[in-house]
Write a structure and sequence with these properties.
The protein has helices at about 20-40, 60-70, 95-105, 130-140, 180-185, 205, 220-230, 260-265, 275-290, 300-305, 310-315, 315-330, and strands spanning about 5-10, 15-20, 45-50, 80, 85, 115, 145-150, 170-175, 195-200, 210-215, 250. With about 350 residues, the protein is α/β, with parallel strands linked by helices. It binds fructose -6-phosphate.
Length: about 350
Amino acid sequence: MPPAPQHFLPHTRVPSLLLPNSAAANRFVAREIDKLVRARNAAGKPTVLGLATGSTPVGLYRELIRLHEDEKLDFSKVITFNLDEYLPLPKEDPHSYFRWMHETFFNHVNIKWENIHIPDGTLKPDEIEDFCIEYERKIRAAGGIDIQILGIGRTGHIGFNEPGSPKNSRTRMITLDSITRRDAAAGFFGEENVPNQAITMGVASIMDARRVFLMAFGEHKAHCVTKAIELPPSEAVSASFLQEHPDAIFLLDPAAAAETTAIKRPWEVGPVEWTPERVRQAVVWLSLTVRKGLQKLNDDDFREHHLYELLREKGPAEKIGEEVFLDRLATIQPYPAGRLLCRKPFWSSRRTRTTT
Ligand code: F6R
C-alpha cells in the first residue's frame, strides 16, 4: 500500500503533522511505539509510556492491540503512567479512567499489572499530596517517560492542566474547568455527575518525557490546536508549552487543522497557486474580514491582507470581486424544487371527496 499523503504544516511553533485521517495518525504513533518497545525488549530494557484516556487515543490502543495479537508486540517489559484520574471516583466506577484503561487496552495485551500506574481517584484529601510526590518519584525511578501520548481538551489542556496551570507544575489535584466538565457530561449522563476535581500529572511532568505525541482529531479541536501551535506559549493554553519541548509533535486530521493559518489563509505563509477555488476562498474570506460586499473590495483591501500576489496576477480588485460574485451567484438555485413548466389552473385538479 502506498504511504498516505502527509506533510508538516508551515508556520507553526511546534512540528505539526497533517495526516489524511485519525487512522493514519494512530498508525504513525503505534509504529513509533512498536519500534521503541522492540528495540528495548531486544536490549532487555523496559519502555516507559505515558498514556492518555478519552476518545482521542482509542484508535491508537486498538492498533497497539492489533500489533500485539498479529505481530507479537511484547508488552511484558512496558511500564505505563497514566496522565490523570477523576477525584473522587472508585476504581470500579464505570467512568473511572482506571476501568477505562483496563477495558480499552491493558486487558488485551500482556502488560504486567505491577507495571501499570494510574492516579488514584479514591484518595482522601490528606493523602493526595504524598501520593502525587510518590507518583513523580515512581516516574523518575522507572527511568522517566520515553513516549508520552496526549490528547488536547477544548480548554487547551494536556492531562487535566486547565488554563492557569504553570509551566513548572507537577502531579497534583486540580479543579476541572467548566468546559471540560461539560465535554465529559455525556459520558457521565449529565454534567452534575462529572466530578469537580482530578489528579493530573503537571505540565513539567509531561515536559520531562523524552518524546511527546499530541493527537487531535475533529473540528471541535480546531480552535485550541491553533492557539497551541501558533500563539506564544502561555498558561492560558497548557498545550502551548509543548513548543518548548525538544521532541514534541502534533498529529492532526484535516478537521483539527482547519483553523491553522496554513490551511485557512495559506497565502499568508508562502506562495500559492491561484486556482479558481483558492481565489474564491481568499476573496470570500477577505470580504468577510473587511465586512464589505464582494463587488466593493478595492486594491488596498487586497494589499493590506497579504493578497498582493493575487491582485498582481488576477487584478484589479473590482475585476476579481466581480468574478467571484458572479461565480457565487451562479450557485444560487432560485427554484430548488425545479421550475413548473406547465402550470395547470387550480380548478383543473380533481379531488375526490369522501363523505363519512
Ligand atoms: C485524558 C486527558 C485529557 C484528554 C483531553 C481530550 O487522560 O489527559 O487531556 O486527552 O481532554 O479528550 P478527548 O480525547 O476525549 O477529546
